[in-house]
Specification:
Helix content of chain A: under 10%
Number of helices of chain B: 0
Distance between the termini of chain A: 37 Å
Radius of gyration of chain A: 13 Å
Order of helices and strands of chain A: EEEEEEEEEEE
Largest interface: A-B, 29 and 24 residues
Order of helices and strands of chain B: EEEEEEEEEEE
Helix content of chain B: under 10%
Largest sheet of chain A: 7 strands, mixed
Number of helices of chain A: 0
Largest sheet of chain B: 6 strands, mixed
Distance between the termini of chain B: 36 Å
Radius of gyration of chain B: 13 Å
Shape of chain A: globular
Oligomer: heterodimer
Shape of chain B: globular
Structural class of chain B: mainly beta
Number of strands of chain A: 11
Structural class of chain A: mainly beta
Strand content of chain A: over 45%
Chain lengths: ~110, ~110
């Protein structure tokens, strides 16, 4: 079974631009979560989509948005990029197991904002 | 105070040593996750626990719900175990809260 894929793997943008990142979950997984990882803040939850609906949201400004398509693929968008948005963006697809959701992570997209 | 605290932040050991990484949390959880991140960024889920103990190869994870504490043990450590180990907790949904990670270096 293919793992979670993310495109692109690397991206360089300038301040003020916008960016769209894509995530394809493991086949059969309907939930996709997005995370931001920075050296200063570590890993932080952005949002989670299930069946095309945002189900959970972290504490990020409205410049960060996402969506999920009927095939469970998800995209996240960051508008008006700031230098502080430089980070590794990870997505994970999950399935429920016992009391929790086992998460399978993609390789990440490394975004650099200049 | 962070909701999830890990210790130590950095750990260097000789090959073959027994390794313990600790995680304490302050919120109610439904599951605790141990993750491994190698240089380059990819994250692998090692364990998801809601009670007791799990073992996979040389890795063992335990959790004490009453004490809100979990440990990750590595037996017979090997240089390929060098990575950052991250504890994360979930409260019944996919929204995980992460510890700051433990950077493990195993010296041959």
């Amino acid at each position: 079974k293919a793992g979670v894929t993310q495109t692109p793997r690397y991206l360089i943008k300038t301040r003020g631009q916008q960016v769209t990142l894509s995530c394809s979950p493991i086949s059969g997984h309907r939930s996709v979560s997005w995370y931001q990882q920075t050296p200063g803040q570590g890993l932080q939850f952005l949002f989670e989509y299930f069946s095309e609906t945002q189900r959970n949201k972290g504490n990020f400004p409205g410049r960060f948005s996402g969506r999920q398509f009927s095939n469970s693929r998800s995209e996240m968008n960051v508008s008006t990029l700031e230098l502080g948005d430089s980070a590794l963006y990870l997505c994970a697809s999950s399935k429920r197991e016992g009391g929790g959701y086992e998460q399978f992570f993609g390789p990440g997209t490394r975004l650099t904002v200049l | 105070k962070n909701e999830v605290e890990q210790s130590p932040q950095n750990l260097t050991a000789q090959e073959g040593e027994f390794i313990t990484i600790n995680c304490s949390y302050s919120v109610g959880i439904s599951a605790l996750h141990w993750l491994q991140q190698h240089p380059g960024g990819g994250i692998v889920s090692l364990f998801m626990l809601s009670s007791g103990k799990k073992k996979h190869g040389r890795l063992i994870a335990t959790i004490n719900i009453q004490e809100k504490h979990s440990s990750l043990h590595i037996t017979a450590s090997h240089p390929r175990d060098s990575a950052v180990y991250i504890c994360a907790v979930g409260a019944g949904n996919e929204k995980l809260t992460f510890g700051t990670g433990t950077r493990l270096t195993i010296i041959p």
